[in-house]
Input
Amino acid sequence: FNFGVIKGGTSVNAIAARAEAELDIRSFNQPALEAFVKTVLETIEAACDEENMRWGLEGDGMVSLKIEQIGDRPAGMNADDASVIQAAYGSLLSLGISLDKYTLAATDQNVPLFYGLPATTLGAGGTEENNHSLSERWNAKDAFQGPQVAFLTALTLVGMKGVSEPILEKVQP
Output
């Protein structure tokens, strides 16, 4: 989770008439994600109630809470032996690209994974630094490798007539 934006108030020593926070919560496990969101929201609601009781606040002077969902990235993940993972790994190997790290991450692939559809995020070439920060950088050296990996992975998954059979599992909607 990340409180990426917190703002409010007009002065360092004045009680803010309004304050806002934007919270990003992600997971690869949907029940864990839902439980954490529930805990966070209950904690914030309890803090508002506690503040109102502490100061005897009522009516328009009460601390109030408005929750607005600004995004939805459901949880999901592949098994290590999923065809999309194996095809991607095979594509990297066939192109002589080493797999230096393979980690879980909450990306846009979570949406199809949540619905039981195979998906992965592919990349190769270039180097990245300081992700999700103001000093985030990407060096494009060997960036041509990314499209090569994506194309070869796609061909491996769907097969090529007269050359190879598809390995992508058929999923029932």
Summary: The first strand starts at residue 2 and ends at 8.
